[in-house]
Write a structure and sequence with these properties.
Elements (H helix, E strand, L loop, with lengths): L4 E5 L6 H15 L8 E5 L5 H8 L4 E5 L16 H6 L4 E4 L2 H6 L4 H13 L3 E6 L3 H5 L3 H12 L7 E4 L13 H19 L1 H6 L2 E4 L7 H5 L6 E4 L6 H9 L6
Parallel strand pairs: 1-2, 1-8, 2-3, 3-4, 4-5, 5-6, 6-7, 7-8
The structure holds 2-phosphoglycolic acid (PGA).
């Protein structure tokens, strides 16, 4: 049984002062007591990573990146490597978030290359997949998620998968516990087919999309849910704390 991972994706939010205040409030809230509840992670915008890492020093909260380039270094203006994120003290990197896939046209092959780069840098990728509303309404959610996973998963290494229905992100809508259970069970089966059942049993599958303090307990208690990827509610220390407090041992 792996401990659940509660990951905050701050997206393009916070400024130096507000990021420092948020990280400080979280560190104070989680303190020593929250350390045993779950694994905690926040992913701030790139330039704020050092100051957030400093504000979290000594706490149980890890820092991660929201994306990376698949190359180790080189002529890639505006990009950030997984090796640099490792050098800044990050432990995880989100790859293939639906906002990256939509805004930057990232393909499964690119997401896979990024995940491999994250693993090569000694970090853990959080590989995101999820269907749009139209794909769900057409009855294609399962096929879309399977195809994204088959194209995006790295060959091997430690990794986390995040199921985030695109229509649930930032909308206040969440998938029903039954849908989450079914999708997570099929992702778990696919991971078992790909990496073997022993490894799949240790792999965390996060749910993301409008996770809040008032729905976290139900979602986190659902079979095969290994944690949550939280956007909006991770910008509020009390709400994020409440979500982490709802975490339990992943089934
Ligand atoms: P949300 O975002 O919690 O604001 O819906 C989740 C995500 O995009 O990871």
């Amino acid at each position: 049984m792996a401990r659940q991972l509660i990951a905050g994706n701050w997206k393009m939010n916070t400024m130096p002062d507000s990021a420092k205040a948020l990280a400080g409030a979280l560190a104070a809230r989680v303190g020593a007591d929250g350390a045993g509840l779950c694994d905690w992670l926040v992913c701030p915008p790139f330039p704020l990573i050092p100051l957030v890492a400093e504000a979290l020093a000594g706490s149980a909260i890890a820092v991660g990146g929201q994306d990376c380039h698949d190359a180790e270094a080189g002529a890639h203006t505006g990009d950030t490597s997984a090796a640099l994120l490792a050098g800044l003290g990050c432990r995880y990197v989100i790859v293939g978030h639906s906002e990256r896939r939509a805004d930057h046209g990232e393909s499964d092959a690119q997401v896979r290359a990024k995940a491999q780069a994250v693993i090569a840098a000694g970090l853990v990728p959080i590989i995101c997949v999820g269907e749009t509303r139209a794909e769900r309404d057409d009855g294609r959610a399962g096929a879309v998620i399977e195809s994204q996973l088959r194209g995006s998963l790295p060959d091997d290494g430690e990794m986390v998968v995040a199921y985030e229905p695109v229509w649930a992100i930032g909308t206040g809508l969440t998938a029903t516990p039954e849908d989450v259970r079914d999708v997570h069970a099929s992702i778990h089966r696919l991971l078992g087919d790909t990496f073997g059942p022993e490894k799949a049993a240790t792999m965390r599958i996060l749910y993301g999309g409008s996770v809040k303090a008032d729905n976290a307990a139900e979602l986190l208690a659902t079979a095969h849910v290994g944690g949550a990827l939280v956007g909006g509610a991770s910008l509020d220390a009390e709400a994020f704390w409440a979500i982490g407090s709802a975490a339990c041992a992943a089934p």
